[in-house]
């Protein structure tokens, strides 16, 4: 125990803003790694959870960030990032000069570029570092982290990111992490959709679904998506690890960004509409593996 306390005094002080499905376990992994973490979020029960894990709950963003060397943000979308970053109570007005902001939210690349530019004027550095791996990856600290920003800032952030994830790559300048995350969300959505179609096809054909998914996952059709979501499909368990509402947001980001650069996403556009239709039918709060429900409806099943 004494070693942990000694180590933590030499480590950067961290402020964590946003303690949701991903943010709570991630912040706890930093505490386990010996970091001092002060957190702020809108829900009192999440602040209580952080305190119980050994962190410090703050009453505001300003209070959380004022003494922090590193500020990590994990909120749902661009409007929330802008809300916590800007304004008199925001990060840029209250963090100390020289602080490093690591934004791990999944937002538009342009929001990241603008944030980095505005922060620089205040003497604050920013990298965008969105993640892939879902709730399980956050809990197990095996997230894939795609980063955009300066090499020196990436190097400084790396030890912190290594306490949160397994695959950590600098992908280019500000916004690059978000662009790669958008591509990730495109691949994941199309993959889940293909798995969902296969599940309905297999079940309607009278095949043993568990056996079929096992053998499929051992061949070229196997994927991390199938490994992670197999039980969701088998048990129709759509408790959110990653909500349809958030994947809907991400499909909007990737289709818009692709249009801006002149890249065609014909299959991605179809899946984006299927995600949107699922949300319109009231399933936005379910896990994205609930794309299975959309395929079942299209196949004439009552869900």
Automatic annotation (TrEMBL):
Pfam families per UniProt: NAD_binding_11, NAD_binding_2
Keywords: NAD, Oxidoreductase
Cross-referenced InterPro entries: 6-PGluconate_DH-like_C_sf, 6PGD_dom2, 6PGDH_NADP-bd, HIBADH-like_NADP-bd, HIBADH-related, NAD(P)-bd_dom_sf, Tartro_sem_red
Domain 6-phosphogluconate dehydrogenase NADP-binding: 13-172
Ranges where the 3-hydroxyisobutyrate dehydrogenase-like NAD-binding domain occurs: 175-294
Family, similarity comment: Belongs to the HIBADH-related family.
Cited PANTHER family: 3-HYDROXYISOBUTYRATE DEHYDROGENASE-LIKE 1, MITOCHONDRIAL-RELATED
Name of this chain's protein: 2-hydroxy-3-oxopropionate reductase
Organism in which the protein naturally occurs: Streptomyces gulbargensis
